[in-house]
């Protein structure tokens, strides 16, 4: 796990953020009538980026590969759908803490069990918990079964009678999601560089050594699991708000596998890498889906190729840019004149030259 980035990393990320902020200016010019649709795609990319960063806390920082992370994503969507009033909008001031509380409690209970396993057993137990909730939701009547539940109104964010952000407005919702994603990135950036993050880094490198030093590694991993689940729940709530429904597909292992591919595609343990991976994955998904009905085949081949060529993901292109195999020549070397040969050398009258080995 990297504790410091080259200066070009924050510069590039700041430039991309500014590009997103000013999308309403350049979007209609470049995209035209499809700019409103692409605004929704950008919003989804930001939500998936937040989701991918939450998983990176487990996969990239601690080294725990989970195939059930969509459990918290989908559970948050159902919490929003079930807790929202039927004929008016809920208040985000209490809905967001409720979603985070439900995600935290579920992550605490599940994490307390699955963290007793390691390796492939951890992967399978997280997958098992995710699939158990998936089938429970698919068969239960109060969750709408396989059809899911509709959310008629987005939560409101008001102070008294004054609306701070109109979340029903696609542009304002886009900026709200961007702010949540940015806050999540800054929080995780601070977390992994704190004392807590250093312990997690040590657990990733050698858990037995950390235990020998007196650290209760189980408690640290459980705390990180809960934090990761809460952030995934926030992403799930935002996704349910955007599309206005919650269904079992948001709980399935397919979504867990997709977000894991985003983390790998972007670069594990870098935070900004999974964010870039979410954007790249969705752009490839959109392009291949409109190119052929066999877009899954193209997506799979592309992911394999990127993993083989870029083992550190897209983040590796920024952290360690490829260098061309050209000799480094200074400015002086380009214009340096070759010393003139002596007259004896030019006339062939010089004595035998001394050749040095090496």
Structure write-up:
This protein has 358 residues and is mainly alpha-helical. The chain contains 16 helices and four strands. The chain has helices spanning 8-21, 23-31, 35-62, 70-83, 92-114, 120-139, 170-192, 195-205, 207-212, 217-243, 253-266, 272-289, 295-309, 313-319, 331-335, 343-347, and strands at residues 149-150, 157-159, 162-165, 245-246. The strands form two sheets. It has a two-stranded antiparallel sheet. Strands 2-3 form a two-stranded antiparallel sheet. Strand 2 and strand 3 (162-165) form a beta hairpin. Helix 12 packs across helix 14 (313-319). The two termini are 41 Å apart. Mean pLDDT is 86; it is low at 326-358.
Q: What general form does the structure show?
A: globular
Write the element-wise H/E pattern from the N-terminal end onward. HHHHHHEEEHHHHEHHHHHH
Beta strand count: 4
Strand content: under 5%
Order of strands in the sheet with the most strands? Answer: 1-4
Question: What composes the largest sheet?
Answer: 2 strands, antiparallel
Q: Structural class, from helix and strand content?
A: mainly alpha
Number of helices: 16
Catalogue the unreliable spans: 326-358
What is the alpha-carbon Rg in Å? 26 Å
Q: Please bin the fraction of helical residues.
A: 55-70%
Calculate the terminal CA-CA distance, rounded to whole Å: 41 Å
Overall pLDDT level: 86
